[in-house]
Write a structure and sequence with these properties.
5-stranded mixed sheet; alpha+beta; single chain; about 220 residues; 4 helices
Length: about 220
């Protein structure tokens, strides 16, 4: 029995990587029925997303700001980096405990752009051409909201929304938009992709969407 248990522990990482690799290549979504084992599942609202790299990636900050700007991946890497370790909670129920994210605090980019007094919210768009999200300006300025360049102590992979994604630590993971390409300061919150389909705009873990999950912070 002890030998079988040890073999199971030793094989688990390999099996989990196999499940993740299968999920990345599964167009049917049937792998969602497999146990997640504390790992991420892969979602996209489009059939495919062309990858970006350090040469082709750009992040635009505009809207109700005094100094619109465009960042390359190299630009973002030169900014002060913040590392957070929190549980990631999906609104569909799965959770990945103690996941490290690292990147630039969104508040820093907003301050650099010079947010105008009439601003009330921030809208996020993505280079998949379909996904969007929003936060109130107060939410966007939280210390646990990042423009993330690293995830699980590695550069954010394309499957996870890289090279740059949003990370909103205390909210359900659909707020952490993948393949981030635009940050637009607006005068009101505009519902994002999933909010237009019935999800809560305010997505605090354990306090929204009719769920009672333990908060992630």
């Amino acid at each position: 029995m002890l030998g079988l248990g040890a073999a199971g522990v030793a094989a688990a990482p390999l099996l989990q990587r196999g499940v993740e690799a299968l999920a990345r290549q599964d167009p049917t979504g049937l792998t969602d029925a497999l146990p997640a084992g504390g790992a991420f599942r892969y979602y996209s609202v489009t059939a495919s997303v062309p990858p970006k790299n350090a040469r082709t990636y750009r992040l635009r900050v505009d809207g109700l700001v005094d100094r619109p700007s465009t960042y390359t991946l190299a630009d973002l890497r030169t900014e002060p980096q913040t590392r957070l370790v929190r549980d990631v909670q999906c609104v569909t129920g799965w959770r990945v405990p103690e996941t490290p994210f690292e990147g630039v605090r969104l508040s820093r980019l907003l301050d650099a752009a010079g947010v105008r007094p009439e601003a009330r919210a921030v809208r996020f768009t993505c280079f998949d051409g379909a996904y969007s999200e929003s936060l109130t300006l107060e939410q966007a300025r939280r210390d646990d909201v990042l423009v993330a360049l690293r995830m699980q102590d590695e550069p954010v992979s394309h499957e996870h929304g890289g090279p740059v994604r949003l990370y909103v630590a205390p909210m359900y993971f659909y707020k952490s938009a993948k393949w981030l390409s635009g940050i637009t300061v607006t005068d009101a919150v505009r519902p994002g992709y999933w909010e237009e389909r019935g999800y809560d705009v305010d997505a605090w873990v354990g306090r929204s969407n009719g769920r009672e999950d333990a908060p992630t912070v």
